Structures
1.
Amino acid sequence: MTLIRRIPRQHLVAGIVLLALILYPVINPWQPYPQGVLLIAFLLAIQASGWNIISGYAGYISLGHSMFLGLGSYTAAIIALHTGVNPLWVAPLGGVTAVVVAVVFGSVVLRTRGHAFVIITIALLLSAQIVATNWDGLTNGSDGITLELPFWSSDFQNIPFYYAFLILLVLAVLFSAWIARTKFGTGLIAIREDEGKAASIGVNTTVFKIMAYGASSFFIGVAGGVYAYYQTFLNPVGSFAILGSVLIVLSALVGGRGTLYGPVLGAFIVSLINEAATVYGGSTQSRVLILGLILVAVVLFLPAGLLPTFIGMYRRRHPVETEYTDQEGALKSAAIVRDRLPSSPVSSAPLLEVRGVTKRFGGLTAVDNADLTVERGSITALIGPNGSGKTTLFNLITGNMQADSGTITFNGKRIEKLAPWTRGHLGLGRTFQVTRLFKDMTVLQNVVAPLPDGRLRTMLADAVSGHEAARARELLGIVGLARFADQKAGDLSYGQQKLVELAQVLMLSPELILLDEPAGGVNPSLLGRLTGVIRELNQAGVSFLVVEHNIPLVLDLCDPVHVFARGSCIASGPPGQIREDPVVLDAYLGDDWRPQDAHA
Ligand code: ADP
Ligand code: MG
């Protein structure tokens, strides 16, 4: 009994439904019609569940996902036609074709960000139709391919197909659940929420998106192979129909995209409505009209989809008491950061060297032939008036923007041409002026999301309960926020979010952390913790480059201090010297700042 209580309710309900579906043809074997309706629902659910990986998790909407069903069907059918092998046995090859096509085209399209992908997915679907129509020798053109009838006795009706689709559905859902548990899955959600930020914490966004597109297509391709045999006939127009893609998207939206069971639930609802509309509504037009109206209603009234709405209602009625294992005051444990720092040979060369870097925005030169050095083990400050180019310089160092000219050397390696995630893997971490946490993720997921290297093993590590999650909890302990691990990051105060962002960066085991105005908007009590953490980490071997307007804090914490004005460095030196420098006083600190403030 206690075991059952420990299984999350969603999985329990899913298990009971699955059991009922397994038993249904056994209990009720002479019902070909409902079995036929259900197996089509399974097929749609397989597709919606796959679609959910690229479009729900990663947020890249595909409007042509039924293409993979067609590709799978054609693969199995063509092989069957030319070799005489039963299409059912070669259905997995349909999945392989789908993945190959997804990866090849994905690697072209998914290098870009944003809307290009949506358009291309439709274009791909239509091109597939055209190719299938015109490649007569292979596909029989618009005449289509006719396959032999099922080899089993007609007494079994479509029951074998029923189970084949049900098994594929279970596998597709398990696959999707596994992805959601890994750091790969967390990375996909990070991409959906803030792609630039994801790249800066070591997520190789290009590879992640291509892999997600490939993963989303596999079971659809396999199901396509089975579907070809079920239909016994396929042609280009039917196999690459846009309506199929619309049903997939509709299912995921109705059920709740980005959730595990939402797309499956949605697919059952949509295929039942689709079936009812076919039986009672008559023409295809009225079917499309009914489906269109549902889509409008869902977008207007249930933007998150049914499942998230239900779960939200349930949670509000039954709030969960979270037990806190308090790990506050864990500042001493900064040693765990030291353990993970690369034991690079102690070199006297600077950790970071920026030489002659320039960045223009149209006519404005935001960073102008700037030089900057950060010594190993230092907490270096970068101060300067608003608009002097400090944040832009950070963006150039971490790769969020490309410099027009100049060189950036980190740990003896030229990095100015490298992707942001590669710089992250080399040990360069940053926080943002306005925090960019993934607001819909929990605090813990935020801290687990970064990838310290590009290895497949790291990507596929368990993010929910494995050693990665354990380490994330330790890092939250360092910044004193372990008890908020399971809260939504967006619910924390601004200052707490800044600390979480610091813990997040620590997951990269960085050698250098760039902090962009860490104290901005942080209340005084958290400020003390923040400086404490910075000092502690610095003693553990982490170097810092800090942009900050709180001058007393800078003069107290940092050495040396560089002063930026109009895109380049105008003065550098220890805090004592900067405080008295007339050039600095004139350019930045102004009349309302007096040296004694530093002692306040
Ligand atoms: P700071 O961080 O020192 O306040 P920024 O680096 O944010 O300064 O900005 C330097 C200058 O570059 C400002 O004039 C700003 O308006 C401009 N700037 C910054 N980012 C962009 C951008 N993405 N596009 C155009 N102009 C920008
Ligand atoms: Mg700035």
2.
Amino acid sequence: MTGKVLSVASECAPLLKTGGLADVVGALPGALGQQGWDMRVLMPAYRSIALPGARALWATDDLFGGPAQVLPLTVDGAQILLLDAPHLFDRPGGPYSVDGADHIDNPERFAALSWAASQIARHGLSDGWQPDILHAHDWQAGLAPAYLAYGGPTGVRSIMTIHNIAFQGIAPAAQLGALRLPAAEFHADALEYYGQISTLKAGLITADAITTVSPTYADELMRPEFGMGMEGVIAARASRLHGILNGVDTDIWNPETDPAIARPYGPRTLKRKADNRAALMQEFGLSDVTGPLAIVVSRLTDQKGIDLILAALPDFIVAGGGLAVLGTGDPALEAALARAAAQFPGRVGLHIGYDEALAHRMFAGGDAVLVPSRFEPCGLTQMYGLRYGTLPVVAATGGLADTVITANAAALDAGSATGITFHPTDALALSQALRRLAGVYADPARWAALQRQAMRQRVDWTTSSAAYATLYRTLLT
Ligand code: ADP
Ligand code: GLC
């Protein structure tokens, strides 16, 4: 049995991306399509997205303060539904903020997205398409299952997927009416969250099933140190929680065919990777790196543990290591990285910004990718690292713990190791992991064996899309 799914999110690659959420939302229609599921993605028509000249499939005169319509668009085979509501989405800045400050009407903007989703789920589109399942992603879509539940009985089932519990969609209690939420539901077992509204909690409470993007993060979410206040809500619904690991697009992330890199290579032509390394060293102005060349491609935020890299850096440099960083985010972290690049010329290179093609060149040219996250629901870059034989050095948390097999004695013996994990997430443990990395790097045969094992590891969507399909089926029977 298969059916139709409305996926609802604030970003979807390649139309708009600020992080891994967009990659996953963009990949699911194709991955689920292979399982026979017909998925459409509803997302806002931000200013940067060119509106298609198509006929509207849904319209309203008043979506939280202005007219709105839904326009269909096919991108890379995926069916996108653009929510065109100029009063909410046609404005300067990014999807969530402008000049570093959140758009002040974010609660209304994403309530509008969620409202439209719930209406489409309940009544269908004008072309006759009506989903069997409403699949909401993160706080921006959290009210979609809630509106569906509060609107009265329906055969449509709902799923709330947590990509990152740190973002909870908080709005003042006084906005309850303005957000079209029932006052009777403002209590601790429903919408109320420490005196305010949380749109994520609304979704978690009302959805028929909850998923998150790795099995380990699913377990972690029930602990105070990871649940960020939601641990009780999640534990109370533990029987409906599923950890389904993300995949990556193995066509886009394929070192044998990647058009962005200096020289394609594969597990049997690993020597060619050296040309990519040389090109990357030159691009970042690096020289004298006798040990492993580590890369970082990341949002620069506290979550990602960038400060730990800075703390571990001097020892790594002494051991011959080099570092190339691509990222953007917290100005303090950007400045600290710039200081490190100035302190270690020829050994540390930095590119502040967002650059997809450069990211590809870095995975092709690096020896190792560092992901020392304090928490990581899934993480995608460690999987790119596996694909490119760029060994992941990761904190043993969330999806990082689920995707990297650490090079301990047993795993090396069994030939199953694919990288290095460390625990706890602190500078000492990272330093020790980097020392181990340099040790393995000094043994070329062992290093190459690890690279080949990493490149063999399955990181595509096959297993995960089957798990989503099974969950969808379970909900509909
Ligand atoms: P998160 O979603 O928490 O940022 P993920 O690892 O799931 O972490 O996804 C991040 C995605 O964004 C990856 O595809 C990564 O390559 C990409 N990315 C992050 N920063 C940059 C950057 N500065 N330039 C290019 N791509 C980036
Ligand atoms: C979030 C998480 C990241 C995950 C991504 C896609 O941004 O921080 O770990 O990979 O969502 O699910």
